[in-house]
Amino acid sequence: GWRASLPSGATVFLDSSLTPGLGTIHLLTDVTAETVLAQLNEPQSIEAGFLLHPVGSVRNEGSIMRGLYAAGEDVGVVVARMGPSDNAVIFQFIGRRDQQPLYQQLTDALASSTEFLSDQDSRALRRWYERLTGMELTPKRDKPEAQTIAATALHLCSDGRFIRSIPLQPVPGRQEERRLYQETGTWLIDVQGGNLVLPLTKSTGEVDQKDLSERDGSVLLNDQAVDVAPSNSCL
Asked: From CA 234, how far away is CA 164, in angstroms rounded?
């Protein structure tokens, strides 16, 4: 299944090198079914000067709404699914008219497999995204003399990228400046089994998942306290 665990207002773009077209996923909070229905009954703005116009009325099936749009040889298929707490997710695929059955299949599959988080989990995710987005996380040092030792720093950028700076060990007997190795990829915060986790998907595709928690006001990654400060590497 697909879980709507990204921050509110986020838009995810889906692309394919095999099939023409563009897909988007919009996550909405503090919305009603009436608001979403009214939005779907309007022309859909894809980019400046490119509008897709409704073909007939949106089909309202309770928690599911389906709309079809067209402009020239282009079509758009939209399926919106309402969540339990004034939230919604909208799936949209746009492309050539002859690909409409495929777009319909994709939107239906995504909508039916979507899992909404509980109110409690949603509030926790929002709080943690607000706390960690754009921040640099470095391990806390118990001893003052340890502060001078370079530590691995994890930067969580607001565009969904992460940058991890890892100090390289100097070659014994050689005078050289301290060097850093950087890993990059994407990050998000998720809830699994009632616990918060921080999956880091590296550019190689490998996933490094950290447990995320809090103790005495400190952020913990895998039960290790980290300092949190604004990141200069994400600018």
From this structure: 11
Q: Give the span between the Cα atoms of 196 and 186, in whole angstroms.
A: 17
State mean pLDDT over 169-182. Answer: 63
User: In this predicted structure, what is the pLDDT of residue 178?
Assistant: 59
Q: What's the burial of 1, exposed, middle or buried (CB within 10 Å: 0-12/13-18/19+)?
A: exposed
Q: Are 96 and 73 in contact (CB under 8 A)?
A: yes
Kindly report the length of the chain: 235
Mean pLDDT of 197-209: 93
Q: Residue 176 — very low, low, confident or very high, per pLDDT cuts 50/70/90?
A: low
CA torsion angle for 23, 28, 34, 39 (degrees, to 10)?
-40
Gap between the Cα atoms of 105 and 79, Å rounded = 10
CA distances to 8, 94, 99, 148, 224 from 26, in Å: 9, 14, 21, 44, 34
Quickly state the pLDDT bin for 142 (edges 50, 70, 90): low
Amino acid code (one letter) for 123: R
Give first-to-last CA distance, the chain, whole Å. 34
Q: Is the pLDDT of residue 170 over 70?
A: no
The CA-atom distances, in angstroms, between 41 and each of 22, 67, 199 are 20, 8, 37
The backbone torsions φ and ψ at residue 149, rounded to the nearest 5 degrees and listed phi first, read: -85, 130
Q: 143: left (phi > 0), else alpha (psi -120 to 50), else beta?
A: beta
pLDDT of the residue at 85: 78
* 37 sits in which H/E element: helix 33-40
**Pairing state of beta strands 114-115 and 2-3?**
parallel
Which pair of structure tokens corresponds to residue 189? 């915060």
Is the entire prediction scored with pTM above 0.85? no
